[in-house]
Amino acid sequence: MPSAAQRGQVGPVDTAKLGRPAWLLVVAACALSRGELVDVRRLDPSIRVEMPYATSANFTGVRLYPVERCLLRRAGAERLVRVQRRLRAEGSGLLLWDCYRPFAVQQRLWALVPDARYVAEPVMKAGRRVDGSKHNRGAAVDATLVDAAGRPLEMPSGFDDFSGRAARDSADASPTARRNARRLEAAMAAEGFEPLPTEWWHFDAPGWQRYDLLNEPLAP
Predict the structure, then answer these.
(1) pLDDT tens-digit readout, 167-189
(2) DSSP 143
(3) Which of 137, 138, 158, 155 is nearest to 146 (CA)?
């Protein structure tokens, strides 16, 4: 069974057995695991947010979010702002499709589509959240590119396309679409985001393992 640290959870620690430097490190790790969620557009309003899960126009056909709001852990949100600056210097920008996702929404998503190929299974043990999506940690983002006027650029596939076209190494898309996907990946990777091989739009923030699985509501 994976340890609490491997699950991205911080277990109980007897600080009395630790020296002061080690105790401070534990406190810092606990604070990081509870790192605040911030609204990305409050940091940079030029970043566009259009979340299909806030409508019924998604692969489930069900509205899952009450609002279109992109929340991320602060470290990841600040990285995303730097990505936006980099892209704007090139005449383009970010359009975000998904960010933080409450654990309860992950449970509903799994109930609708119980297929681990497409949806991360939310797991509870002894009343604790022990596994789920990196989106539940506020440490993953689904993104695409827009031009200077805010119009989406051509990409290899649409969002949540579960065909082979969504893979980063797919050769099925047009040269323009593949080039745009590479531009997005390069800009995200330059700020430390880790691309998912099977979904050109999905990126994990570095250090995602250290964050707890959350169930904070997506309030306006």
Answers:
(1) 999 999 999 999 999 999 999 99
(2) E
(3) 155
